[in-house]
Every structure is written in C-alpha cells, then in structure tokens.
Specification:
four-stranded antiparallel β-sheet; FMN reductase (NADPH) activity; about 10% strand; Flavin_OxRdtase_Frp; NADP; 2 domains; 10 helices; Nitroreductase-like; alpha+beta; about 260 residues; about 40% helix; NADH Oxidase; single chain; FMN
C-alpha cells in the first residue's frame, strides 16, 4: 500500500478524535478570536456567507442543549457553538435594497440555497474544529442537539430564514480515546464513476467489521457494540421521528419543494 505523506497539518487531521470530557478551564479570548476568524475563512458558495454561529455561554442554555442531546457533557463544555444556516441576514440586506423577501421571485429560501448554506456552515465548523485541534484543544461535533429542532430554535431565538445545523463543543481534553478505524479507501474513493459491482466494493467489509468491533469492545468493555455493517442495518430502519427537516424548515420560512 502506498505510504502517505506527513506534515503538521496532515497529522493534526489524522489524529482527530472526538473528545467528550474536558478540563474545567476557560478558553482564552485570543483562542476564541482565532477560532472564529478561521471559521470565517472557510469556503462560501457565491460568497453569500449564509451561515452564523451562536456561542453559548449561559449555563442554563448549555443545560438545555445537553437535555436536547441526552448528553450531560454538553453542559460542561468550556466553549460551545451552534452553527446555523442563515439566510435571515441576507434577506435583511436584500430587503434594504428593495427586494420583496416573501415573493415567489425570492430564491434564498429554496432547496438549493438551503443545501448550499448547510455546506457553508459545515465548512466553517470543520475549519474551526481543525484549528482547535492544531492548538492542542479537543472537540466533539454535536448532531444530537437536533433531537428537538423546534426546542432548539426556540431556546436560541432563531428568526425566520435560519435553521440549526450542528453544535461544536471545544475544550482542553481530559481523556485520550483511541483512534476510531476508518474503512479502506477502496470502499469510499472511486475512479471516474461509481462502481457497478457492489460485491467488489464490499469485499473488504468483513475485515473492517472485525476492526470496528474490536475498537468498540476495547472502548466499551461492559457494553459491546455491533460491527459496522450491523450498525448500518439498524440505522437504515431507525425511527427518525422528530429528526426530519421538512416541517421545521417550512416553519422557518424555507421552501424545500422549490
């Protein structure tokens, strides 16, 4: 197998792992300024800058997010953000220029812009996360806060044309978990087109299943976790009640049917 190249940036990314336990130490203002500025330098579709991030410092709001996510450690994060796709600011700018933001001709609330704003927010979050790791901090991305989207919208006072994407908890690590295995590149990177032979793509799956199973056995000695393929099968039929996007997005003013 071809050996990969190494430098400080590559090694920071290769050693990325989710940190769920933080030392109870505040994060310096200079670090916060650095992380936020780095996030602002991520790619942005058509330079619309259609995302925002809410820094959560109120302990009561942190506890509420921990309640939504069913993860108590969220409340203990020294630095906590919720990234939001944000067409509200752009709608305000357009309205000031005379655009009717409730007319059919207004396209910032359609499905394309919704998906692009999601992408932009995710790029910004990932840039912040990578910068945090490079500074010796630890992070965990929080999709769990979307267990109650309407509650999250309410507690963050999110206006029309905004929608929460993900949370990011940051702090000085107080644990050192093992690196999670990654599937073979041949299962995820293809040449020129998606392969027609599913069996060939999945040929390394049995070995990857065993690697993942061993990883979870070592991490959770008292609570065995299924192999990768079994986790996929369970998630394929999981109850997603309360996790759908369409209705809460519509209540926020988005028209995902366009």
């Amino acid at each position: 197998m071809t050996e990969i190249m190494h430098n400080e940036t590559v090694d920071t990314l290769l050693n990325r792992r989710s940190i769920r336990k933080f030392k109870p130490e505040p994060i310096d203002d200079s670090i916060i300024a650095t992380l936020e500025t780095v996030a602002q330098h991520a790619a942005s579709s058509q330079f619309l800058n259609d995302w925002s991030a809410i820094r959560i410092s109120d302990p009561a709001v942190k506890r509420k997010l921990a309640e939504f996510g069913h993860q108590p450690y969220i409340a203990d994060a020294p630095l906590l953000y919720v990234f939001v796709l944000d067409e509200h600011r752009n709608a305000s700018i357009a309205a000031a220029k005379g655009v009717d933001t409730h007319a059919d001709a207004f396209t910032l609330t359609g499905s394309y812009r919704f998906s692009q704003a999601q992408n932009d927010a995710a790029f910004a979050l990932h840039a912040m996360e990578t910068a945090a790791y490079s500074l010796g901090l630890g992070c965990v991305i929080l999709g769990s806060i979307l267990n109650d989207v309407d509650g999250l919208i309410d507690v963050l006072h999110l206006p029309e044309y905004t929608y929460p994407l993900l949370g990011l908890a940051i702090g000085k690590p107080d644990q050192e978990p093992a690196l999670k295995p990654r599937m073979p590149r041949s299962m995820q990177f293809f040449e020129n087109a998606y392969p027609a032979d599913d069996a060939a793509v999945l040929e390394p799956l049995a070995a990857f299943d065993e690697e993942v199973h061993q990883y979870y056995d070592l991490r959770n000695t008292e609570r065995p976790v299924d192999a990768f393929s079994d986790q996929i099968a369970k998630n394929a039929v999981a109850d997603m009640t309360g996790r759908t996007v369409g209705e809460p997005a519509a209540r926020q003013g988005f028209r995902l049917d366009r």
